[in-house]
Amino acid sequence: VGAIEVAKKETKAEVDDSYEGVWVYIEHVDGEPLEVSFELLSKAKELAKDLNTYVGGVLIGDKIKSKANEVFAYGADKLYLVQGSEYKNYNTKLYTHAMDNIIKTYKPEIVLFGATNNGRDLAARVAVRLRTGLTADCTKITIDKEKRLLEQTRPAFGGNIMATILCPIGRPQMATVRPKVMKKDKPDYAKQGEIIEVNLEDKPQELRTRIIDIIQHTTQTVNLEDAEIIVSGGRGLSEPEGFKLIEELAVAIGGAVGASRATVDAGWIPHHHQVGQTGKTVAPKLYIACGISGAIQHMAGMQTSDVIIAINKDPDAPIFDIATYGIVGDLYEVVPALIKEFNNY
Ligand code: FAD
Predict the structure, then answer these.
(1) In what helix (H) or strand (E) does residue 134 lie, and over which residues does it extend?
(2) CA of 298 to the centre of ligand 1 (A)
(3) Least CB-packed of 69, 125, 138, 179 within 10 Å?
């Protein structure tokens, strides 16, 4: 806290105060904006109110103008739109060029990106081009109204402390924020906004990468990030086959399958199922943790779930500290009993 105060005091005079507005990069897949973009717009609205400024959205894609209404509904006052067939799918070089140019022209004070694979890739490159700072993977964002500083909080030192990071001099202040961390407001479809169509010149011609094919995950259960119910398995399963039981319970109650890192590292299940600090952040209505001890790095990714049920044979397992309901017992007895009960329901 002391260091934060010193940083704030020392740097106020050097800031370029011609920068204005809180922007969100609207990431989309196949022209459909990701939920995290709406979560960030809701947050941006709050920050913009504190700073007495506007909310901007940046949408880069092909024939994507029809999404403007949604972007306005979630809080944007202005939409910066870059369109063209070359922007249909994310491309690091093209999108970096676009963001870099728009930011240099319109000078936003803050820019937020989703901490997705593409959001992380883009934000880092744009920050380097702009010679400004970037805080990756934030789990909390607040503002010091008076000094107009974005207070960007993220886990550090293996999740053992929460660090608040400031970008006192560089502008814009930039952060990536994990999906599902910010709450999405209800959309207001009556809200209008201004569309600023941006035509870019000197687009990069030689692209080092191109998309050959997009392979979708095929799974019997629903996508982890969108799931309202998640059943997760940990090392307590003892063997990879244990995930068949987890999947059976997930299917019985219409949920998705999650996992602890221990099981991912052991090669029992692919990484895209991992919940936690180095996996996904989730906030479902119901999270069932089976044979998971409750390490701080796991809890960082699921502790905001509405209801948490923990099944563990060790009554002292830390997961019980945050569980709404705890079942002390062998998961190989408890989970089949739950499946039987739900299938008869
Ligand atoms: P354990 O800690 O081994 O727990 C297994 C539990 O199963 C025990 O509590 C045991 O009592 C119980 N059990 C055993 N048999 C049974 C049974 N038959 N029935 C019921 N209960 C049973 N971890 C993550 O999960 N996600 C992350 O994103 C993540 N990121 C990390 C990042 C860093 C930088 C570091 C250092 C670590 C990270 N970890 C992460 C690892 C984390 O510290 C733990 O090692 C991991 O979460 C442990 O997984 P687990 O709970 O499955 O295994």
Answers:
(1) strand 134-138
(2) 7
(3) 69
Euclidean distance between CA atoms 77 and 90, whole angstroms: 24
The burial of 4, by beta-carbon neighbours within 10 Å (0-12 exposed, 13-18 middle, 19 or more buried), is given as: middle
Q: Could you tell me if the ipTM is greater than 0.95? A: yes
Q: Is 13 exposed, middle or buried (0-12, 13-18, 19+ CB in 10 A)?
A: exposed
Residue 280 Cβ inside 6 Å of ligand 1? The answer reads no
Centre of ligand 1 to C-alpha 11, Å, is 43
In short, whether 303's Cβ falls inside 6 Å of ligand 1 is no
DSSP 158: T
Q: How far is the CA of 136 from the centre of ligand 1 (A)?
A: 24
Nearest to 9 by CA among 135, 169, 133: 169
pLDDT 10s digits, 199-233: 998 888 888 888 888 877 665 556 787 799 999 99
* Distance from C-alpha of 164 to C-alpha of 153, rounded to nearest angstrom: 4
Number of neighbours of residue 295 by Cβ within 10 angstroms? 18
Residues annotated as binding site for FAD? 235, 260-261, 274-278, 291-298, 312
Is 58 in contact with 26 (CB distance < 8 Å)? Answer: yes
Q: Measured from the CB, is residue 269 less than 6 Å from ligand 1?
A: no
